[in-house]
Amino acid sequence: MKNTVNWNFDNTYSRLSNVFKEHIEPVAVKNPELVLMNQDLAKELNLDFTNIDKNELSALFTGNILPEGSNAIAQAYAGHQFGHFTMLGDGRAVLIGEHLTSNNKRFDVQFKGSGKTAFSRNGDGRAALGPMLREYIISEAMHNLNIPSTRSLAVAKTGEEIIRDTPLQGAILTRIASSHIRVGTFQYVAARNKKDEMEILLNYVVKRHYPELINSKNKALDLLNVIIDRQIDLVVNWMRVGFIHGVMNTDNMTISGETIDYGPCAFMDIYEPKTVFSSIDKMGRYAYCNQPAITKWNLSRFAECLIPLIDKDEDKAVKSATELIDTFGRKYEEKWLKMMRNKLGLLGEDNKDKSLIVDLLTWMHQNKADYTNTFCHLMKLKEYDDDLYKDNNFQNWKKNWETRLSSKNNHTEKYIKLMRSVNPLVIPRNHKIEEALEMANNNNLEIFHKLLKILEKPYVQQENILDYIKMGDTTREYITFCGT
Ligand code: AMP
Ligand code: MG
């Protein structure tokens, strides 16, 4: 199989000492059956599965056979879950290796739902079909929205039932990531209190993700600085499209700046900053509007891990790290403002921009307007006309906006082009996802594929879009579950 598929493994993480991982193979499954494969992603990875028959693909994407050159491990990590520190690790996933593309880009290939490991605690090591398909479609949607994300290469059923509230079909997702190293990986090493191990991890991460820092005089501090920037960029992107991650524990925050772990995540429809979908997030810790503050909180936990490597003098190290963490607020505000200016097509800067933006958000909030569709309406797309926008307050706001637009640039074409580059015309709406998953659970993937297709080009006007832009039933509270 190796020759036809073009696997090109170089497993650097599995060559690290056993402190960082456990060598373990996926637990064989009873009746593997490939459900879904991402041919476009396979192409991007220079993998060619076209000559492989379905049985072999099914065996491959459940881990029943492992490709040559792979070296399966479960990674060790810790994490703050809803603020509480816990030792974790891949409890239901194995990293089978790092694949290099022809232009030397390195990707982790991971099976999620692949059986018990040393880190499974009380879990069964398995995942259900619905949540794996959900991760597939939302992670791919995020990628197509130009937001850094892990990707999904395949979903295969195991042919085994798993027990949750009810028996469910077991499945395995093949996840592709630039790496699976998390803030929690650093926390795990920090908890062991061995400076040399932290040095190994730091050097590994710098070499793999931030090679521009290799000759830096203070790698730990510079790494903190770039990761603050990456994470701000990421959360600003989430805010741009109304994405709510739902479980921003430190073990679910990557060092690469990619969105990871699509558990109870969902997209907001009505603009309500306090939106929370997750059934377990009773306090709203991970609500839409709290995401920037939680990002900063998580980064502070990351900074703490690096203290021993920042300076021999602990006080000095804490001072330097705190100074960097304290830049978060200003940097976030700047990047958020720029992002919102783009959403409104505002070129240049004006002192009143922030109040113009806040006025619109306030109006949207008070009038229960759809976040995505309001910007589409402002882009003059007829499909998004709605009586709601005839409201006097909205019309008055619009006049102010138009005055601001014409003060810096009067070309409609120019500002619409800017708006079109950042405002999606379609997002994975909760009711559409649910509809697709319900059918898929009954072995009908037609609706799932249609939704996947429309989400491939979220910034482009497509036929049939009307069915995908309506809010779901707003009288029904939408709840997502973590018990995946
Ligand atoms: P998550 O909520 O998916 O980020 O997972 C948090 C932690 O729980 C990770 O260490 C997972 O590996 C572990 N975990 C989640 N579900 C299971 C399961 N069914 N069996 C074993 N471990 C699990
Ligand atoms: Mg996780």
Characterise this structure.
The chain has 484 residues and is an alpha+beta fold. Helices cover 41% and strands 13% of the residues. The protein is built from 16 helices and 12 strands. The strands form 4 sheets. Strands 2, 6, 7, 8, 9 and 10 form a 6-stranded antiparallel sheet that branches. The chain has a two-stranded antiparallel ribbon with strand order 1-3. Strands 4-5 form a two-stranded antiparallel ribbon. Bound molecules: adenosine monophosphate (AMP) and magnesium ion (MG). Adenosine monophosphate binds at residues 88-92, 119-120, 123-126, 247, 251-252, 261, 263, 482.
Output the keywords.
binds magnesium ion; 16 helices; alpha+beta; globular; six-stranded antiparallel beta sheet; 12 strands; 484 residues; two-stranded antiparallel sheet; binds adenosine monophosphate; 41% helix
Helix content: 40-55%
Mean pLDDT: 96
> What is the percentage of strand-forming residues?
5-15%
- Low-pLDDT segments, ≥5 res: none
Q: How many individual helices?
A: 16
What class would the helix/strand composition place it in? alpha+beta
List the secondary-structure elements in sequence, H or E: HEEHHEEEEEEHEEHHHEEHHHHHHHHH
**What is the gyration radius calculated from CA atoms?**
23 Å
Number of strands: 12
Described by the principal axes of the CA atoms, the overall outline is globular
The molecules bound to the chains, other than polymers, are: adenosine monophosphate, magnesium ion
Q: What profile does the largest beta sheet have?
A: 6 strands, antiparallel
The end-to-end span amounts to: 32 Å
